[in-house]
Hints:
It is built from 15 helices and 4 strands.
Amino acid sequence: xxxxxxIHDFVTRxxxxxxxxxxxxxATATVLFQAALAVAAFAVAILWPNPLTIIAAIVILxxxxxxxxxxxxxxxxxxxxxxxxxxxxxxxxxxxxxxxxPLDLYRRYHLDHHKYAxxxxxxxxWMVKSYPVxxxxxxxxxxxxxxxxxxxxxxxxxxxxFKWSQTGPSVLxxxxxxxxxxxxxxxxxxxxWWAARIFxxxxxxxxxxxxxxxxxxxxxxxxxxxxxxxxIPRWWEALLLSPCNVNYHLEHHIFAGVPxxxxxxxxxxxxxRGYYRDHDCIAHGFGDVLRxxxxxx
Length: 297
């Protein structure tokens, strides 16, 4: 009987070890790049305030909230900086504070997702259990997101569950952000961050969740090629919906210790060696994701 190929039939343990090497400078560059995009979005809207620049800034900021949430995710895995203390500090006081993601609480929850993926005990399964859905259903969900209904609901939940030990870093971030905008004479721009958080981020989060597990062929299978998906985005989709290489989610589930800046290389190796062959687990763009996530009424 022919055995099912194991992952190490496609990538050697030595290659995995090399791919798992963390880099402080690459991690720092990722954080600085995302911060620079946020600063640029604020700067353009402040220097040339008009509806177009303000709306564009809000959309870009929504993508940056997503990006910093992803950085927190990678810090939670200890798969971002080489120095563990930097993973803890940045994950809690920088990226986690910006994205409203308490690092320690998130780590405990998320590691269970990896441990139990493909089983009924996966704590993330509820997020995508109904997919594929009808186009009308998906449209209703996205309308709730972009009209702020989802964002206000989630914000209210954060307020009700407020604990200083968990939310303190985010409070500090907002205080610093407001003071900085006040110092440059544009306190009104602070509202753009909340507009991004309430009206943009929920839709980006939903689309990312759908792309990761909502389009999987069988979320109850143990094979990552069947219970998880990877998306190859267009450049603007990577900027807004799947920054920091989070689109390589299948590869992340196989080797969670590989840092995000090495996931594209891991994907190329597995692709060239036929790991994905006979498995429809790669979506090409988020239009393809939405097609896979919907079914006839």
